[in-house]
TrEMBL record, chains A, B, C, D:
Organism the protein comes from: Solemya pervernicosa gill symbiont
Name under which the protein is recorded: HTH tetR-type domain-containing protein
UniProt keywords, alphabetically: DNA-binding
One Pfam family this sequence matches: TetR_C_29
InterPro entries: Homeodomain-like_sf, HTH-type_TetR-like_transc_reg, HTH_TetR, NicS_C, Tet_transcr_reg_TetR-rel_C_sf
Domain HTH tetR-type, residue spans: 8-68
PROSITE patterns from the UniProt entry: HTH_TETR_2
Source domain of life: Bacteria
Top-level taxonomy: Bacteria, Pseudomonadati, Pseudomonadota, Gammaproteobacteria, sulfur-oxidizing symbionts
Signal peptide extent: none
UniProt DNA-binding region: 31-50
Single annotated GO MF: DNA binding
Record-linked SUPFAM superfamilies: Homeodomain-like, Tetracyclin repressor-like, C-terminal domain
Amino acid sequence: MNQTAESSNTIDEILEAAAVVFSEKGFDGARVDELARAAGVNKATLYYQIGDKEALYHAVLTRVIKRTANDIEQALETVSDCELRIRAFVEIFARNTGNVRYAAPIMLREVASGGRNLPESAVQEMGRVLGALTDTLQQGIEQGLFRPVNAFMVHMMIVGSLTLYSANEPIRHRNAKHNPEIHDPSHFITTEEAGREVGNLILAAIKAQPQETQS
Amino acid sequence: MNQTAESSNTIDEILEAAAVVFSEKGFDGARVDELARAAGVNKATLYYQIGDKEALYHAVLTRVIKRTANDIEQALETVSDCELRIRAFVEIFARNTGNVRYAAPIMLREVASGGRNLPESAVQEMGRVLGALTDTLQQGIEQGLFRPVNAFMVHMMIVGSLTLYSANEPIRHRNAKHNPEIHDPSHFITTEEAGREVGNLILAAIKAQPQETQS
Amino acid sequence: MNQTAESSNTIDEILEAAAVVFSEKGFDGARVDELARAAGVNKATLYYQIGDKEALYHAVLTRVIKRTANDIEQALETVSDCELRIRAFVEIFARNTGNVRYAAPIMLREVASGGRNLPESAVQEMGRVLGALTDTLQQGIEQGLFRPVNAFMVHMMIVGSLTLYSANEPIRHRNAKHNPEIHDPSHFITTEEAGREVGNLILAAIKAQPQETQS
Amino acid sequence: MNQTAESSNTIDEILEAAAVVFSEKGFDGARVDELARAAGVNKATLYYQIGDKEALYHAVLTRVIKRTANDIEQALETVSDCELRIRAFVEIFARNTGNVRYAAPIMLREVASGGRNLPESAVQEMGRVLGALTDTLQQGIEQGLFRPVNAFMVHMMIVGSLTLYSANEPIRHRNAKHNPEIHDPSHFITTEEAGREVGNLILAAIKAQPQETQS
DNA sequence: TATGAATGAGTGTTCATTCAT
DNA sequence: GATGAATGAACACTCATTCAT
């Protein structure tokens, strides 16, 4: 009966498993055998259901990006205050990046490769995310709440710091293991906590100084 | 006679060429044939001179990181003012990332892979970079110049934003070509200019508000 | 009700479609998917109805050979004059080869493969065809109408020339397209017309010279 | 020293071995592993020296055709009498087909496939063979030695009969083994002897009747 | 009877590495 | 020291066949 639900579930499981493998090994490092094994299906089934390695990667990539874009857009829908919108943006992005373990590595590799495998649709999706932030910043500037800042650079700071922090995790832990004497707890907050830090820093950076009126 | 100089020169040329290829294709995507061709040497010569693919990659990676660490340490040597030190840090990092085209993609991929190929020596090198920033921030905080901030997160914001911005370039240009109607010049500043923006934003974020007359 | 008629019809359609595919691609070049698609049935249905690829090929091959053998035997039944029998033989063979497009390629490939897939029954069938010609020639020789010739070689000449000519068609047309300046209309007669030419040549070759008695 | 001679020898050995395998199995039936094993080289070496399966097949095909064309042209160079030229043509073709075991199956399969893999150069080569015969026939007709015949059909008869006879061999032997009671020695002459038979038959078919005292 | 889905066993091709010179 | 040639071990992908429904 629920053939559709069932099979889209199968495909979804394949994509979920593939996302993990691709995030760990990258496109070229991932083996199709491994992708199939991780998904618990026969290699030929993978080809039958989705197509070749590239098609699988495209599907994974699009899915990751679309999910983040959707979450952010949805979260911002009900918030109108500019500062809260910024906080919401950073919070959702951080939560997504923290929870969906594979998102950050996949995105970093994709950027590193010059977006070689980035389908146009995915770029559009990313544009939605950027647009949400840019619009909010613009609005805040017009309302005199924010200083005039380069919105794109603010975007880079939020996305770059949180993606890097999240993907960094294995290196940080390895480092802590090798150099336990210099263990710094601030290196081991969750990505969500990191999001709050970043949110605070970004707002401190962009908020107009109220004291300007103090004479 | 100057055999040594000559061959170290050759080795340097090989590493430089290999860095470009690795940055474009990643470790798994790069082909040894291609690496040899790019370096203008026979494949077997490459093995004779440097060793296998992994050894070549390690050499490239260490070289990239060491160069950045050296440049930053050197630049900070003569600066003592905390704010100027922050500016110098960001500026040097941005200049390096902007000029050495292959640095950002290589670092992003390395982080994405969980530092799988990061030799301990390289991690130490990165620690030096982080240490330089952390110390400066700590000092500024103690001097009442900076608010108490999470130094590691500030580091992530600087490094993340600039690395991402630099590596982003091909995607930004592709996007501009496909959607010329929404061309935004702020997406196309140089990495050095981006560094200044980031420097300003970071300082705005961390500087203590002098007028807050804490009584 | 007419289940049998219907399914034998279906099987016949499958065999007809498969013959075309096999003639174009050969046994190893044909894909079961393609054979099923060409027949308009599901792949699993094909297995259910006929069996595996080899069984399908056997069925196709036997059918092709049997048809030719039947046609020739039937045509010769009512002809007793030796010369006319030779003409009938060539004519029927040419007509069959010309009309049943897939016959020639299938036979050529089968011969080329050393008859690897030729079932004994099919060989017997071919023996009937050869026998019909051989008997006629023998009879003609005994009647002083034909010179004593190697019957098998005459058979090769008839079958070889017409099969080759028919299967040749795509090459001839391609050649004509690439070298239109040397277009020779004698390369583009129908296989039936070719049969008449071959019939004339063969008879000229084997007929006893009546003038031997002149002197 | 004789690097060239040596390596062209290696390639030649590969081509010779591949010709045998392709003639037995056809393009699709031949396995690259098998081709390499037959040539006594590693599979990767085969790719290094020649290229992929298709390139190998092209090389084999061109070589086979060129050899026959060369032999025939060379043999006809010194013969001017029309009848002798016809005999020479048939004899050389038969000898080639008989000695070079793989030639006939390869050609039959190629024709069967519609010349799908026949490079233009090979078609030209075949044109030379056909041209040699056609010119001789035309000349003989003009000299009143031959009846006006369809030269292309004569060509088909010669080439078709001998190719078929040669490729037929396994089937004939198998048949003889299964039906020893009807063993006919005329089925087991050499291809060269078959060539003489065909030569006689063809000449008998095309020679003008001298006694027809055309007044 | 019919079929979408699944799969074990290949299949052509590539690759990092080594060797002979 | 340098290089054309060689190769074992993968690798992405396909195919004939079967299975569950």
